[in-house]
Amino acid sequence: MDPLTFTFEDGRTTLADYVLYQIRQHSTCCGADNIYVELRITPEGTVESARAMTGRNDCYKQSVRDILLPLRWKVENFRTTRPIYYELRFSEECKGTAEDNVYKPIPVPQGVQVAAAQPPRTEPPAPKAEPTPEPPKPPAEPPTSTPEPPKATTQPIPVTPSLPGTSPTPKAEEKSQEEPPASPAPPAPKKKIERPSPPAPSEPARKGYQPGKEPPREAQPPNPPAVVGSLPSDSTPKPLPVQVPKKYQSTGEKRPPQDHLNSYANTSGPRYMEPDYINGPVAQALYLKQEYRKRGVCGLVHVLLEVAIDAQGNVRGYRILQANRPDAEIATPQVLAGMKYKPVPLPMVFYTEFKVDVDCQSDQRKTQLDTVPDYLATPEGKLIRPAVPKP
Fold first, then answer.
1. Which residues, other chains included, contact 342 with Cβ-Cβ below 8 Å and sequence gap of 6+?
2. What φ, ψ does residue 142 adopt, rounded to 5°?
3. Which residue has the higher pLDDT, 202 or 343?
4. How distant, in Å, are the alpha carbons of 306, 382, 387 from that of 262?
5. What string of DSSP letters covers 314-353?
6. In sequence order, what are the residues at sequence separation of 6 or more whose Cβ sits closer than 8 angstroms to the Cβ of residue 360?
7. pTM of the complete model beyond 0.70
8. What ranges does the record give for the region Disordered, renumbered to this chain (predicted)?
């Protein structure tokens, strides 16, 4: 068996095919199972041990062990025992008898060479060397006293000759001839400089305390004022005028003349000044549909309004400029009473329009709001174009 390709010498039969053939011929194991096997191969090519690391069917595990143990492996580069891992998958159909999944020992195949096993390399024994006769030993000589090596004698250091014109001092010559050179003295230890320690404070140190002039213990007279005398008239502070916004005062519900209602211009209006609804545009559309539906208004509702709100976003006044239906115009004041916008810095007045398709019945025909022109032309809105009938 080749440990690299897991095939036999014929080059076609794999290890999985051989194990499955033996299972079908010599055992009654059945069912589906996956077994991950660990094989320990020796340098001689034999299987030292075969161990199933995974699997749930004991019949498969024991049969696989009986099949793999007799195999011989090609071990060209094996110097020590090596582990080899292989996965086997089984899916055999059970016959429904009492012998299903009953383990039976699988015999070693006889007369069939499972795999070529290379014999271990043996080196020819080295020829034994013939013993050579030992030469005769010379006669032992009597021990003689070994001469001791001469002891080294210290010679005096010659005196350095004096410079020409000068005479050497006799004391220096005697010291140089008699006394040996003195070894250098070790350096003296450095003396520690003692610094005077500060006197111990009478009171314990306080956290955050910094040395300095102590504050007076008794109340001191106040410092004299910086300006002596009366202040000039122009230095008196005067209150600044604060512009308070005027509250919106409604003049009542007055319908503008008919010629004014139809005289709108296709220009950008104050749409960008409209505040945001408290819960967003989607919540505003759902609220309008629900409120108009409660008041019996169904279908397209298109109303142009002038609305005044306070800083908290509550509606404080309104004026209906145009409506597509009388019932929508009547229900709009009650719908405005429940609306609330996001807070703004100052009270404001803005123009807005409601354009919703209120569906009261499931089979009601829906209106395409994009085809209905707006009352106000804004930069964010679409251009007003006449609806083109579909062909």
1. 275, 276, 277, 278, 313
2. -70, 145
3. 343
4. 16, 20, 19
5. BEEEEEEEEESSHHHHHHHHHHHHT-BB---SS-EEEEEE
6. 293, 298
7. no
8. 113-269
Length of the chain, please? 391
| CA–CA dist 113, 96 (Å, integer) | 35
- Sheet of 299-309: strand order equals 315-323, 299-309, 348-358
CA angle 290, 294, 299 (to 5 degrees): 70
d(CA 156, CA 180): 8
Alpha carbons 94 and 196: distance in angstroms, whole number: 102
pLDDT bucket at 142, cuts 50 / 70 / 90 = low
pLDDT score, position 110: 65
Question: What's the CA dihedral at 11, 12, 16, 18 to 10 degrees?
Answer: -90
Beta partners for residue 110, in sequence order: none
Q: How far apart are CA 292 and CA 327, in angstroms?
A: 10
Q: For residue 252, how many C-alpha atoms fall within 13 Å in the half-sphere facing its CB?
A: 2
What region, left, alpha or beta, does residue 252 occupy, with left being phi > 0 and alpha being psi -120 to 50 degrees?
A: left
DSSP 165-224: T----HHHHHHHHHSPPPPPPPPPPPPPPPPPPPPPPSS---TT---SPPPPSSPPPPPP
Which are the contacts of 315, defined by CB distance < 8 A and separation ≥ 6?
307, 308, 309, 336, 337, 339, 340, 341
The one-letter amino acid code at 46 reads: T
- H or E, element range at 53: none
| Tens digit of each residue's pLDDT (9 = 90 or more) over 291-301 | 999 988 988 99
Angle between helices 281-294 and 326-337 (to 10 degrees): 120
Structure token digits, residue 390: 């579909």
- Looking at the chain, the number of H-run helices and the number of E-run strands are 6, 6
Give, as one character, the DSSP assignment of residue 372: S
**The pLDDT of residue 260:** 74
Neighbour-count burial for 207-239, b at 16+ CB within 10 Å, e otherwise: eeeeeeeeeeeeeeeeeeeeeeeeeeeeeeeee
Q: pLDDT tens-digit profile of 184-228?
A: 666 766 666 666 565 555 556 566 666 677 878 888 887 766 655
- Two structure tokens written together for 289: 């549909």
